[in-house]
Structure formats: structure tokens, C-alpha cells
Amino acid sequence: MIETIPFGGGTSTASPAYIGARVSIVGRPNVGKSTLFNALAGRRLAIVDAVAGTTRDRLNSVIILNETVIKLTDTGGLFDVNFNSPMLHQGSDDKQLKNAVEKQIKTAVQESDLILFVVDIRSGLTPDDRKIADFLRRQNKPVLLVVNKADTVRFDAGAPEFFALGLGEPLPVSALQKRELDSLTEQISKSISQLKIKPVLVETVKNKPIKLAIVGKRNVGKSTLVNMMAKEERVIVSEIPGTTRDAIDVEFKYKDKSFIAIDTAGLFKKTKLKEAVDFYSRFRTESAVRRAEVVLFLIDARDKISTVDKKIGRFISEQEKPCIIIVNKWDIVAEEMTVAGYRDYINQMLPELKFAPISFISAKTGFNVWKTISLSEELVRQSLTKISTVDLNKILQKIKTKLAPPGRTGRFPKVYYATQSSVGPPRLIIFVNDPLLFTVTYQRFLMNQLRSELPFAEVPFRIELRKKPGDSVRDYSSFPETCRGARRESRARRPAGALKSARPGRDKH
Fold first, then answer.
1. Does 146 score more than 90 pLDDT?
2. Per-residue model confidence (pLDDT) at position 49
3. d(CA 88, CA 294)
4. Rounded distance, CA 340 to CA 345, Å?
5. What are the residue ranges of helices labelled H in 116-221?
6. Does the domain spanning 389-492 belong to CATH 3.30.300.20?
7. How many CA atoms lie within 13 A of 478 on its CB side?
8. What number of H helices and E strands is found in the chain?
9. What span, in angstroms and rounded, lies between the C-alpha atoms of 215 and 321?
10. Topology agreement, domain 2-201 and domain 389-492
11. Mean pLDDT of 452-463
12. CATH number listed for the domain at residues 2-201
């Protein structure tokens, strides 16, 4: 039985406290490593596509296998030494990317207790399979040879060919059809039980890591920032736009506090979604924003804020997520621009995120990076702040004294009292006589005043105007119309000639 728990800690029925083994999945491109990873993890974590080389970074998931907690790692495809991978071309940038991928894989193998070497039964034994097998034998690590894509029994006859790799008995499975996965998990459990592994403590729920989604358009330095946080080359960094395709979870600690940085694929206009992988990358980025406590929105200081940046800003605002706007590569332009001037420029171009603090950093040198991490912890604190009803109403009374809501159509809006109903994001309910009597302008004034007075000024929060219970006025709180729209509706319902007769002196004689 396999059970998945959040990487870096969380809750499960077994409430595990220790990781018992580290298992890595390796193999040449397009043999089904990510499909196997998703099948074992029990959820779609890695992007699965028919294009060789889709997975480029290490992906992790913590699973429970027969009461043993395992850290499972998916890797990019191992390429042949002649740079002939279908994913690569002949340029030096491609060679640089290939070397970075191979470095990631070698690191994953060195950190592993058990290796799942995946081959393709339909392609048969290839020269690349032999080269990878030679590499794995030199690592002195236990290896399970997984012969994937054996969707039916008739494919099993081709498995003995892989005995030639000298890595033990081939295990025919189908990750896509989930065929013989139970047999594979039994072999994994058996192999782990034969290893003398010292368990590693997993973060407990009390010290639940803060999830930071790192988003932005392509090539703004997201992976460089993640590697600076992790203090190792955990994610492939390249000048080639679009190097990262999956949403990568990377755990790190700062001042005894745990964080999970979610490095995401760079976003671009929907019209440029040329591959299925790009579609899944966009979907995974949006999902990362939804599950994060704080979003780190990266902007390249050298570039103008683009349409893509604006769309990202609107999406973050719609999700009501605490956000830090990070101006990266500031060290390059610091002599040409001022902090105040650039801050005004951002507020003008990204009005939906005016509440968000702005941090000027250099992910490459580490300038201001750790101050930004501390700021993210402060935003989480603000988002979870609960203010007492007494204190909230004192602030509300102070605002009413500054400017009372103006009357409309002979009626005057009244504010009775307010209360905070929830946190993360904070939600305020203000009880009034009629929500439709409050103009959009006054609601904006109310929001700005509350933001300046409340202890969660730098995070998004909601305000709901609600009719006071027991008030005889019709409840319009669920209506999207403004007061002006409601008047137009009432006029439209008047009987024919009513408007004419209501205006004496305007009739024709």
C-alpha cells in the first residue's frame, strides 16, 4: 500500500516522523520515468509528455510504502555522451543544458539508497541503456531494473533481453496502465529492508514549512533564486528561456524555520503555447500559486513590465495571496534607477498589487535575498492575524468620523458594526442598513483606511457589506449591481408613461 504525504512534512493516517529511504528513478529520455513517478506518488506531480527530455529538474515526493517512509525522486533523462539526445540541437547552449541535467542526475544518484533504472521494453535494449548501466554499476548502489511499457502479458517475453545489463532480474511493468506495480513495490520494500539506513527526521506539523511559489515570466532568475535559498544547485539554471518546466519543490531552512520554495515554469502569452508541455507548465504554475502561503513575483529590473507580468499580477490578486514583488538583477541597474522611482513605476503598472511590498535583490549575489525570506514570514503572520471585534469597531468609528458615507436618492447609508470572520486571507464583515447605498468610491475609501489602520496592511483582505440581521430593508448583498444600476432597473420596471407624467411642464401642447 502506498500513501502520499506532503514533501517536507504534513499529516497522514500513519503520522510518519522519519524518512526511511531515498529512492531515485533514472533512465534515458522518454522511457516513462515521470509516469512511474506519478504512479508511485499517487498524484500527477511530474509533467508527462511524449517529448523526450520533458523532465529537467529533480522532483521529490514523500510516500509511505508498507509503513516505510520514502523520499522518491524523479530525474531528467540521462543523455548519451555524443550529445545526440532528441531533445537537444547542436548549439553550445544545448550542451550547457545537457551538462546541467546530468549533474542533477548524478547528485540524485549519489544521495540515493536505492535506484530504479527504467528501460523501455518496446524499444528494446539500446546503447544508451548499456552506458547508463555501466555508470550505475560504478556507484555501488542497489539497483532495481524496471522494464516499463509492458502494457499486456505479451510484452513480458521481451524482458529477458535486459539480463545483458548485468543488474539482476528485469521487472516488467506498465506505469501508465499500473500493471504489476504491486510486484514492483514489493521488490522496493524488500530491497529497502535489506539496507541498514539511519532514518532522517521529517518536519512535524507544528513546524510546518512555509510554501513560497516563485513565479514570473521566462528567464527572470527564478531558478537562480531557488538555488541561492537551497545553497546548492538544486534547480537547473541556464540562459535558455524555459529551462524549468515542472513546478519544483525545494526545501530549505533559514533561522531554524522551514520553507518550501516552489520553482515554476516561466509564463508567457497563451498564443505562444506551442507544446502540450507548455500548457501543463502553465497549469502547474497556477496550481503552485493556489497552494502557496506567499507568492514571490519576480521581475527583471532590466525589462519593462510586460503584458505577461500584468496577467500574473491579476492572477495573484484574484487568488488573494500574500505577495512580494521581487525586482531581480537590481545590482545591474542600481546606478541608472532609483528605488523610489521604480517603486512608483510598479505601482502604476501593477495596481492590483499595490498592497504588496517590493524587494530589490540580486539572486546571483544573494543581495537582499534573506531579508526577503524574513519578509515572507512576516506576511504569513499578517495573513493569520485576528483582530478583536472591540478594536475593529474602534477603528471603524474613527474612519466614519473622518468621512461619513454620502446619501443617495434621499436615503442615507448607515454603518452599524464590524467583525472579522476568518483569516488567511483576513475577512471582515461590516453590517449596514443597505449595501447598495454605499458607492464604489466610498468602499474604496473604506478599504484604504482600514488597510492603513489594521495590522495586516501588506496582505490582501476581504470586506463584505452585509445587511444587519432583522433590518427590514431588502438584502442586496448578493447582487452584483451598483446603486446606479439598481436605479436603472427600477426605472425600467415603471409603467409606460410614468417618466413623462413625473415631469410636469415637459408634455407637448
1. yes
2. 37
3. 35
4. 9
5. 127-137, 181-193
6. yes
7. 2
8. 14, 18
9. 13
10. no
11. 92
12. 3.40.50.300
